[in-house]
Each structure stands twice: as structure tokens, then as C-alpha cells.
Design goal:
Elements lengths: L1 E5 L2 H11 L2 E2 L6 E3 L3 E5 L4 H14 L4 E10 L9 E3 L2 E6 L2 E8 L8 E4 L6 H7 L5 E3 L2 H10 L4 E10 L9 H19 L1 H7 L10 H18 L3 H7 L2 H5 L5 H16 L1 H13 L1 H4 L4 E4 L8 E4 L5 H13 L2 H8 L6
Parallel strand pairs: 1-4, 1-5, 5-11, 7-9, 9-10
Antiparallel strand pairs: 2-3, 3-4, 5-10, 6-11, 7-8, 12-13
Helix pairs in contact: 1-5, 1-7, 2-4, 7-10, 10-11, 11-14
Amino acid sequence: MKLIHIAHRGEAQEFLKVLDLKADSKISGIYSNSEFALVISGEGIPETISKLSYTISKFNIDEILNFGIAGTLSSKIETGKIIEIRTVYHFEDGKPKFKSFTSNSKTTIDCITTNQRVLSDDYADRISNFAQVVDRELWGLGFVAKSFNLPFKSYKLISDIAGSKTQCFDLKERAIEFSSKLAEHFMKLDTKAKESRQSIEPPITMSFSNKIKFQKMIHHIQKKEDIKLERILSDICVNEILNLKIRPKEKSFEILKRLEAKLNPINTIANNEMIKATQAFRDIGAKVKFDHSLETKKFEISIEINSQKNLDNIKRAVDIFDYKKIEKLWAGDFNV
């Protein structure tokens, strides 16, 4: 099993969607499936060491892969590019720590991890003597990899120029951009992922995660029915969708919804019946969240309370709602 390490949740969002990872029941920021474990450590060396150590002790890990953003300390390394790291050094409290860790990559670019953000040119110039890029976590990962005798690789998306020119961007605003680029890079590296994706392209521009969903469903439908892509798209009336006067994002959603219905018709019927069964809560403005695989009978309701009328509406919805319908659905009876 490979362990993927990412510092920030925003950068990990596309990985979570593409890999269908499930959250750990005990510690937040840890996810897994049958092939990968993923750790969202938070910023800093102590946090990285703590969560990686826990994950490695829990799963049978054979390699660690780090993905994240970093600042460049060299004019030769452009922003927006993803580079592979050779060796990571540590700079703390104004001086270097003479202990480094070398990755399992054949490259010439090094990284230095600092315990503070690089916001001055003097500081950037000083640490540039040791490496071409700078981050906040990789040395901690190297420390853990060495401790557990595991190989590691690191891929850094250069987000800005370290020093006074550092872009004070909001990570949340650019998180989807960073995450998409890093996840796409990961998918290109992963042999199994490349084999399953083949060269299937959606009929409309999609976000990276939706494109992966499209490719996966097409692959499974072709395997199930032994038909070509053109026939699948014709069956879901893709031209009709493309001609709708709605936003591209909504067209993508509709294409994926129809592919899901073709791939899992029973599941689609069950989900539609679940929506009908809980309609009373939606009618009062509540958000209803349930397991679309219908492996569990539970569902969540959230609503903002700001008046007695809200409370009265909730009581009325609860009185109308019949939980026996959910039980019948869960048992496979769709005649609810």
C-alpha cells in the first residue's frame, strides 16, 4: 500500500474524490482504500511526523508519496510547474540542521523545510544556498521515512517566489486549482490509473475529478455491455444534453447522472425513491444527506433555526415523515 501525504485539505480534495477514500474512524485527516492511505497532516514538521507515524503503524505501507505546494528560491524554476525533489534539508531558528533525507527520485532539485514562512529576500537568499525550493513539511516526512526504513518521493507544485515577492494568496481560493494539477500529476504516475483511463475524453470540458468519474463509468459500462463509446453517449442522449441552455458545469453533472443510471439502474431508482421519501424536509428548506450506495439506513438533516416558524416547520415535517419507507427501501422494496 502506498501512503500519500498532503499538508492541506484544500490540496487533497481532488485526491479524495478520485480515489474514493474513506475517513479513519479515530483520527481526522486520515483516509484509505484497498490500495492507498492518505494523510492530511496540517502545516509544520511536528504535525507531519505525528500523523504519518500513526498511519504507517496502522497500514502496511511500502512507499510514501508527498504532493504539495512550495516556493521557489531559484530564478531557474518557474511558478506553476510541478517538480520532483531529490534531497530535503532543514532550516530552523536561523541556522541549518545538519541532517538531510534523500528521496527515491533521480533528479537534481532539492528542497529546504523551514519552521517559518519566507517573507523577506534576505532570508530567501540565505536558505537558497542549500536548496532551490522551500516548504514547511517535507523534512518531517523524510524523518519518518528514514525511521521506518521506507522509500519516499516528493512532487512540488511551485506556487510562488519565496521572499518579499511571495504572493499572499488565499489557499482556499486557489486550492481547487492546485489540487487538480497535483491529482492529475499523480494519476499520470500511477500505472493502474493510466490503464483504466485509457484515452477516453468526455464530450464537454469537465473538472479533473468529474473527468475521472466519466472515464471510470465509461470503462465499467464498456466492460459490462461490450459496446463502444459512441453507443454509450447515444444511449444517454448526450447531444440533447449539450444543446440544453444551462451552464457547462450543469451539463457535466447531467452527463454523469445519466451514465450512473445506465451503469446502476437499480441504484438510481433507489436514490430517486430516497429523495421522494425525504421530500418533506427539503420542502422546509432543510438539506438532506444520505448514503447513495444505500448501505445504511441513516441520513442527516441540517437546517438553520432563526425563528419559531422554523421549529414549527420541523415538527410538521417530522409528523409527515414515515421512516418505514426508508426501511422498505433499504430492504430492496421500491414500492414505497
